[in-house]
Design a protein that fits this description.
Number of helices: 6
Radius of gyration: 20 Å
Helix content: 55-70%
Strand content: 5-15%
Number of strands: 2
Structural class: mainly alpha
Order of helices and strands: HHEHEHHH
């Protein structure tokens, strides 16, 4: 509902990047996207997000509750993908994953370790070029 707020995104985005870690992921979330109050189009927000290579772009309405579950799904999916990619990297680099996910049931149950290993195998098969 405020073009000035949208126009200040580059300033705040730079400030955030200055303070962030190297592998930080970024999301641009437009709020108050009710049609009758809109001042910034979806296309404008998406274009900026794409230009800056942000990981997530979505619109929500905190007032109506629209889009909020989808936003949390996007965040969860992004984090899950990052975890799998990291595990694949560690596995294919010859690094013993047991030191990260734990060998003992007191750290993480064996069933969970097995689930991780199954997911890693699935991802490896999809990415295999042989």
């Amino acid at each position: 509902t405020d073009m000035n707020s949208f126009n200040s995104i580059p300033f705040w985005y730079e400030k955030i990047k200055e303070k962030s870690e190297k592998y930080t992921r970024y999301a641009l979330v437009g709020n108050k996207c009710e049609v009758n109050k809109r001042k910034v189009s979806y296309e404008e927000g998406k274009k900026y997000s794409d230009k800056e290579n942000m990981d997530i772009f979505c619109e929500i309405s905190a007032n109506l509750g629209n889009g909020i579950p989808q936003l949390f799904d996007m965040i969860a999916n992004l984090l899950y993908k990052e975890i799998l990619e990291y595990q694949v990297y560690m596995t294919t680099s010859g690094i013993n994953m047991s030191s990260f996910v734990g060998d003992s049931e007191s750290v993480i149950p064996t069933a969970v370790n097995e689930e991780y290993r199954k997911e890693i195998k699935k991802v490896n098969k999809k990415n295999c070029s042989c």
